[in-house]
Amino acid sequence: MKKFLKVLTIALLLATTVTTVFGTGGAVPVQAQDSGGVKLNPDVSGDIEFWHFWASPIRRNGVRRIIAICKEMLPNINVTDTVKPFGDIWTANVAAVSAGSGMPDVIVEDRPQLAKVAADGVEQSIQAWADRDGVDAARFWPFAWQQTLYNGESYGIPFETDVRVLFYNKTLFSQVGLDPEKPPQTWEEVEAYADKLDVKNDDGTYARIGFLPLGVGNVGEDLWSLTTGYDWMSTGSPKVDSPEMVETVTWLKKWYDRYGGYQAVQDFRASLGASPNDAFMSGKVAMLVDVAGYNSFLNFYRPSVPNVNGEGTVRVEWGAALAPYKTTPASTSGGFALSIPTGAEHPEAAWEWIKCATSEEAQVSWARDTYAIPTDIEAANNPVLMAEPIWKFFVDAMKVSHSDTFVSGYPNWREQLNQRWEAMYKGDLPIEQGLKEAQEAIDKTIADNS
C-alpha cells in the first residue's frame, strides 16, 4: 500500500500542470485542476450554501478547513456553511424542495436513507456529472457507493463513514486490577469485567456501571445480532424473528435487569451530561460502543476521573477494541454523502465543490480532525493517518463491518422494532412474541407495497 501511494503521488505530481498568471501583483500560481485523482474545473463560479449539522468546535473547524482547501482549488466558488440541528436538517430540506425555494445547494445526507429521498424526488441525480467527469466508484468503499444509488444512478458522493468499536477506560481497568492492555473479547468476558468495574451507592443504585451495550454510545441491536453470526438483512429483506435475534435480545435484556431494570437504566442515563460529562468521560460507564469519531472528542476533552486513593483526579487513558462477541467479531458502518437538492440554484458550482470536498485531500483533512473514516479508500489508508496506531485499528475494523441495506418496499421497517423494544426490555412483552409481531408487520407492509 505504501509503495502504491508513493507511486500514485509521483504520478499525480507529474500530471499536475501549473499555469502562471501575470498581473500588477506579480506571478500568481493558479491551482491545478486535479486533486487526488478528481478532475476539477476552477473556471466554474457561484455562491453556494452548504447545510450540515456539525456544530461542535472540532467538526465546525473541520468544515472550515475543507472550505479553505476547496477555495484554493476552486477560487471562483464561495461557500456559506449553515448549521442545522441533526434530524431537522432533512425535514427542512424536504419542506424547501416541496415549496420550490429555500433549499441549500449542497446538503449532508444520511447515506443509508439516500435512496428513499431520491425516490421521493428530494435530491437530484448526479450520475450525468459523475460520468462526464470520470468519477470512479472504485475509489470508495463498495457499500458506501452502493448506498448512494437509486435505480442505478448515484444521488450523492460518499463523504465519510464510521465503524463501531468498544471504547474502554484503561485507567479504571488498572484501578480494579484488570490488565489495561487486554480488553474483553467475548460476551462472557465483558460480563466478568463488568463485575469488577461496577460500583454501587449505599442506596443500591449504581455510581459506576461497568458496561452498557445499549443506551450510551452509538450502537444498536443490529451489531449485537451480528456478533452471534446472524445478519438480519442477509437475504435482502428483514428477518428479525430468528432464534439468533431471540438470543441477542435476551442477552441485552439481561444487562437492563442487571442494573435494576429498564427504567433504572433510563434514570441513570438522565443523570449524565454531554461531553465532557457523558457516560464514558465522566467515568460513570467504563466500557461502551461508539463510532471511531468519538476518539476526537476524547482527544479534545482529555477527561479525568477520581484518583484511586481518593485524592484529586487522574487523566484517563483509553483504548479501543472490537465489540465483545458471542461467536463472530463484527461492527456496523453508516455515514453520510454530499448531495444536491432538487431545485438548487447553483447546481454546477455545487457539483464542483462536492467533488473537491470528497477528494482524497479533503477527506484526509476531515479524518485528522474528526476520526471519521474516509469513504475514499486511499484516503483511509493515508500514511499521515496511519501514523497513529489507533487509526490503523479503526481501518482494520472495517474488515468485519456491515452496512444498512435499503428496503424499497419498506424503508422505515425498523419502526416496527422501535415500537416494541421498550416493552420487551421491561418484560411487558415476551421477546419471542415481540419479534414475531414485528416480523409480521414488516412482511405485510412489504407485501402491500410490492
What would you note in describing this structure?
The longest helix has 19 residues, at 431-449. The protein is globular. It has 20 helices and 21 strands. The chain has a six-stranded mixed beta sheet with strand order 6-5-7-19-10-20. Strands 12-13-14-11-17 form a five-stranded mixed beta sheet. The protein has a two-stranded antiparallel ribbon with strand order 1-2. The two termini are 45 Å apart. The model is unreliable at 1-33 (pLDDT under 50). The chain has two domains: 32-160 and 334-402, Periplasmic binding protein-like II (D-Maltodextrin-Binding Protein, domain 2), CATH 3.40.190; 164-332 and 411-449, 3-Layer(aba) Sandwich (D-Maltodextrin-Binding Protein, domain 2), CATH 3.40.190.10. With 450 residues, the chain is α+β, with helices and mostly antiparallel strands.
